[in-house]
Amino acid sequence: MLNTDPLNSGALGAALPPAGGIECIPIVKRLPGSAINSSPLGSWALNASGGTLVIGCDDGPQGELFDPLERVEVYLLQIGELRAPMSSFQATMRLTGKSFLQAIVPAGDAVLPALEYGAPMQVQLGYYYPSVDEFSDLETIAQAPLQQIRSDEGATRYTLTLSGYGVLPKADPRQRELRDIQTRSINQGVRRIRCSVDMLLRPGSYAIDGDGATIEVGQVQYFVNASSAAMEVYENG
User: Fold this and answer.
1) Which residues, given as ranges, of the chain have pLDDT below 50?
2) Residue 57 CA to chain centroid, in angstroms?
3) pTM for this predicted structure
4) Rounded CA gap, 212 and 230, in Å?
5) pLDDT tens sequence across 34-72
6) DSSP string, 5-31
7) Dihedral sign from CA coordinates of 110, 114, 117, 120
């Protein structure tokens, strides 16, 4: 029967509370969403939807009250020995010729003194485990030497644009199935496919398109910001 409890205290369609009432009150930590590497070590997920993490309970948890957030996906900007925050990046990794990487760094006045021209600049994609404060499975998806530093200063912001060109080291070829395909174009038999970012796909690898076709990858472009992340895969040739 609906709403028979005093003051309508029972939620419509809710499960009955455990016998004896609530045994403990968990301590919940809110995790940010859509915060691109805004913590000192770039710990939070790019394009994350946020969430909660149970970090304690007054009397000890009784069963699984909440599903803790086990891991979040992260993009990290590494410049030499420095791990810097970033608000977005774009990159073009090529099998032949020079590749390109550009990253936007907020609060750049704190980072600028530590930057050195020519330092290796890398974007890594992997996982962060909040409960133990550890990273795992980090893969370098884009890289180039730091060649250009541009600063843009406003009343409340100081932003750096870091970019560079370099020859991409050869990687062992893999075969990867593309996920979440958004668009596909074929120009004179050469394919270009926009899809979700794959941390293991590299120029020289083989990509399996959604229609079953397999292509050799000649170029991968990345477009990543606070609200979206995608890559475009170009067939070699």
Assistant:
1) 1-14, 17, 30-55, 58-68
2) 30
3) 0.72
4) 20
5) 334 433 333 333 433 344 444 455 444 444 444 445 777
6) SGGG-SPTTPPPPPTTS----EEEEEE
7) negative
